[in-house]
Design goal:
By secondary structure, the chain is mainly α. The protein has 2 domains: 167 residues, Orthogonal Bundle (DNA polymerase, domain 1), CATH 1.10.150; 191 residues, hpI Integrase, Chain A. 49% of the residues lie in helices and 6% in strands. α5 runs antiparallel to α6 and α13 runs antiparallel to α14.
């Protein structure tokens, strides 16, 4: 960093913010960074160097007013929280097509809490082992802990490449080994089981039509949740009785792999009411789902609404976003699953990813492994990519998935 700033500069809801204890403050607070006191907060689209300059001016003003500076790193070297803040910004740019930036921020939050003010050069392997043991004691699954440690190792390598730490420090941090099955006190996560159709049908009986349609399309196609929430009319192509969906972003795009989802007649009937949306807009809108929920609530409410919906105070409630996120969709489905389970304990709770598992299980049993790989978007068997071009591979995948899509509907 250009300035040896205390605290952490990070992106918060699209704006730059600074978590720090300034002179005159009794605890650490989150401050919005602005070019001037009257200006709006800086968007995270501007370079972080501008945000650092704003934070530096804010720090100088606080020191001039209160005559004291907050505790700083005495050596002037890069601290752990500064290195984490820089890596999170770089990860959001590097993993722009996926959730890698958010996952990195969540995984490194523990290191910032435990060792934030310490110099990065003083961080050693036992420190990461202590953080790992803390996760084991808190009950995290072994797979979750290993994924977190993998992000820690990537962060250490990035710090070395960015000249924030020495090769010795990097080697010290990447030496942390993954936990082995059966050789650790960490619990094992339960495998994802396919959810039966009768459970899905009973759970979504009282859900808004938009949410029911999303669940039905995912159950019939086996697509990933991230592919479902971004579905647009511009990404759909008619091919005879089938409808082909090519997601604009998908999990393996960075590997150069293609992804095509084959939608059969039943899935097309579910999608029909939503195809009137603009070509570049997502087919499934959270605002439409919320309007359907409120309309059903008003229809069943015994008392009339005191304040009309259009006359509510601005900012009195959180407005739905322009498009679904993976987390919002999962929370909506899990909410209905929990409510159904509370009313009837014979109906277990489930997650959206189990719909993909259920689709893959049915296709695997009916048409074999290659059809399941084609439907789920898994890579083809070794050697196939050497014999076929990308276009031929795509035609072969569509041909393999066509029978399964017609059978599923």
């Amino acid at each position: 960093m250009k300035h040896n700033l205390p605290g952490t500069i990070r992106s918060n809801r699209g704006r730059w913010s600074w978590a720090v204890r300034l002179p005159g403050e009794d605890r650490r607070r989150t401050h919005a960074l602005r070019l001037s006191p009257e200006a709006p907060a800086l968007p995270d689209s501007v370079p972080i160097e501008i945000a650092e300059d704003c934070a530096w001016r804010m720090l100088q003003a606080a020191e001039a007013e209160h005559g004291a500076a907050p505790p700083r790193n005495a050596s002037g070297a890069c601290t752990v929280e500064q290195a984490v803040a820089r890596y999170v910004v770089a990860a959001r740019d590097y993993y722009a097509q996926s959730r890698g930036g958010k996952d990195a921020e969540a995984a490194l939050r523990r290191l910032t809490r435990l060792y934030g003010p310490r110099p990065l050069a003083g961080l050693v392997c036992p420190d990461l082992l202590d953080a790992r043991d803390e996760m084991v004691a808190e009950g995290y699954a072994r797979g979750t802990i290993n994924r977190t440690m993998s992000i820690w190792r990537c962060w250490a390598r990035w710090c070395h490449d960015s000249r924030l730490c020495s090769a010795a420090t990097m080697q010290e941090l990447v030496a942390v080994q993954a936990l082995k099955r059966g050789r650790t006190r960490a619990r094992e996560s339960t495998p994802t089981e396919p959810v039966p159709h009768w459970i899905v049908k009973r759970t979504m009986a009282g859900a808004p039509p938009t949410l029911r349609a999303m669940v039905a399309v995912q159950e019939l196609s086996g697509m990933r949740t991230g592919e479902l929430v971004q579905m647009r009319g511009a990404d759909l192509e008619r091919r005879g009785r089938l409808l082909l969906y090519r997601p604009g972003k998908h999990k393996n795009a960075w590997r150069g792999q293609f992804r095509v989802v084959v939608l059969g007649p039943r899935a097309q009937r579910v999608l029909a009411p939503y195809l009137s949306a603009p070509p570049d807009a997502p087919l499934f809108s959270p605002a439409r789902c919320e309007a359907e929920r409120l309309a059903a609530q008003r229809a069943t409410s015994p008392t009339p609404r005191r304040t009309p919906l259009g006359q509510r105070k601005e900012g009195s409630r959180r407005r739905p976003g322009a498009e679904w996120t993976v987390c919002d969709y999962a929370k909506a489905v899990q909410k209905h699953a929990a409510e159904t389970h509370a009313a009837d304990e014979s109906v277990p709770e489930w997650r959206p990813y189990q719909l993909r598992s259920a689709c893959g299980t049915r296709v695997r049993a009916w048409f074999g492994l290659e059809a399941a790989r084609a439907v789920l978007g898994h890579s083809m068997r070794g050697g196939v990519t050497d014999r076929y071009t990308r276009e031929a591979m795509e035609r072969e995948t569509i041909r393999t998935a066509e029978r399964a899509a017609l059978a599923l509907g």
